[in-house]
Amino acid sequence: MSISSRFSVGIHILALLEINKDGKNTSELLASSVNTNPALIRKIMGMLKKAGLVEIHPGIAGAKLAKGLSEITFLDVYQAVNVVNENELFSVHDNPNPNCTVGRNIQESIMPIFSNAQLALETTLSKVTIEDVVMDIVHKEHENTSK
Amino acid sequence: MSISSRFSVGIHILALLEINKDGKNTSELLASSVNTNPALIRKIMGMLKKAGLVEIHPGIAGAKLAKGLSEITFLDVYQAVNVVNENELFSVHDNPNPNCTVGRNIQESIMPIFSNAQLALETTLSKVTIEDVVMDIVHKEHENTSK
DNA sequence: TTACCTGTAACTATAATAGTTACATTTCAT
DNA sequence: ATGAAATGTAACTATTATAGTTACAGGTAA
């Protein structure tokens, strides 16, 4: 099991929109950077648009961030690209046997624990923004070019 | 995406081994409580055994906990049933374009953040034990029978 | 030695991901 | 207004993981 790479691709896209903010960020250019298909990028862009993270218009080339860099958290992207439904990171087996002590209580007993773990993960994601990534990338670039 | 129910089934099994510790916990009995197939239970039991959480022997009916109740954490089970590989909860798209500033840095930039989020999740899981679940189930049972 | 159990291989059905092709629709430059 | 260039989507494929199932080899004990 693994959380879809739509998430990392979404972050890639948003970071690129900032770093290449003066360029023409078409789905083809973005696809070339991510190394995938323009149609796939457009799908993900559609999700980011729906979540209010980017501005795009049919027929008009390019996309822009719809919010400030520091206002877009990893959690926003994570939710935008729909990799995990609310409270469904962990799946719980259904229809356990109601004639068994464990069977009739396990779901209610486990679910709050799973929710907590999911919340811990999401809280961590909510503390990182696209700005952090962009700064990190710029920093890494500088490190390398100055060698 | 969703983390396999092997995890919740594993917890179910371990809790039942405790609550029914004086009974004969065959894969068939466990399967009936979980509401699935004995062969599937045996597969999961095999994983729990490999992780040192239960004692089973070929030909001999029943299984027992191999550790104290409070010594088995949710994280132990999570790792035992192999639902998520180490540092692979999030998948990162591979082969991003090395000719692009973002492409050549995104992986290194994102991966530590993902690791942190995964760590937060796993830390939460490490703080809950099978004992907690058993106590909760016993408590819930008492609540209902005393109505 | 028979009945019962565990361990496992092999198979199926279902669903999600990632990728791809194709095309309708929209916009802008000429 | 016409054509070039984008976006938006539907439809399809391949691959993989999950969950479930059947079947049977091998161990154990009454």
UniProtKB/TrEMBL annotation, chains A, B:
Pfam families: Rrf2
GO molecular function, one term: DNA-binding transcription factor activity
Origin: domain of life: Bacteria
Alphabetized UniProt keyword annotations: DNA-binding
InterPro entries assigned to the protein according to its UniProt record, in alphabetical order: Tscrpt_reg_Rrf2, WH-like_DNA-bd_sf, WH_DNA-bd_sf
GO CC annotations on file: cytosol
Keyword Isomerase: no
Keyword Electron transport listed: no
PANTHER family in alphabetical order: HTH-TYPE TRANSCRIPTIONAL REGULATOR YWGB-RELATED, WINGED HELIX-TURN-HELIX TRANSCRIPTIONAL REGULATOR, RRF2 FAMILY
Protein name: DNA-binding IscR family transcriptional regulator
